[in-house]
């Protein structure tokens, strides 16, 4: 019995060792397979992450604008002629005959002023003139008699000369008195306040019995008359657009209270100077207002059609990159890598800008570039590369 156990024991041990080795190899294979799977998964994750890190961008080619540019600026309407009417004589307002809103003709009576002190001054001046005329007649007859007596040697030459000089002095006194009467008569004519031209009374700041003080424009006016059949429009044009503004240009006006209605205006002139405080050029236009649809003093929008720059390229403002190094635009290179180009703006049109330098017509400009984008970064184009700018504008107008 003990002999069988001793014989079979070495064979059993070898079998168990073989089984252990096989199990060890299987375990090692399983571990190696798991490690290889993890390494492969990590490589795939790294590759996927690298692919996801490549930004997907939309690119388009800039185009020249064939259409004219619309420049919209705020403006102010003003009457073609506006005259505040002041009193030239002092007194009390006797009556007024035109209130605000009254259409008046040139020379039409607006009011009358009572001037009792001026009336008395005129009467005194006329009396002084009569006295001067009487003295002048006496001096003339005296000088004539003394001249005749001088011929007969009845008086001396000195006495005759004195009478002749007295006549000249009396004649000068008459001329002065006549001038004084004329001056007071001219002042008397200002008692009647009349309209200086055809127009509308826009203000009446006096009433019957009010004390009127003669002034030169320092106090409040009695009436104000405006000619609104034609209006002036004043617009402040930015300095960047001042070179395109030329006399004779046409423009259109819109006012808030009449939506959809456009009024034609013509550029009359400019002040040929840039205002330092605002950096703008003051422009004056004229607009016909025979229908009375426009009101002096109201706000209006002025629409200019400016000619385009034949060499400028138009791109959306969303393509601009503002960084410390200056204004830049990102374009896609031939190797699908980003290239940042410094550019300068010729005209800012709001949603679009005209580039004066830095871009070529064949460049593929990236729209809405990522903030982290730098030159040399790989990019992935979405859709058809080189989308025309006209198609993008059409899409923008569709979506408002």
Automatic annotation (TrEMBL):
Residues 84-215 form the Multidrug resistance protein MdtA-like barrel-sandwich hybrid domain. Residues 312-366 form the Multidrug resistance protein MdtA-like C-terminal permuted SH3 domain. One of its GO terms (cellular component) is efflux pump complex. GO terms for molecular function: efflux transmembrane transporter activity. Residues 367-400 are annotated as: Disordered. Signal peptide: none annotated. Residues 234-305 form the CusB-like beta-barrel domain. Residues 390-400 have a biased composition (Basic and acidic residues). It is found in: Cell envelope. Keywords: Transport. Residues 121-181 form the Multidrug resistance protein MdtA-like alpha-helical hairpin domain. Pfam families: Beta-barrel_RND_2 (PF25954), BSH_RND (PF25917), HH_MFP_RND (PF25876), RND-MFP_C (PF25967). The keyword Transport applies. Belongs to the membrane fusion protein (MFP) (TC 8.A.1) family. PANTHER family: MULTIDRUG RESISTANCE PROTEIN MDTA, RAGD PROTEIN. This is RND family efflux transporter MFP subunit.
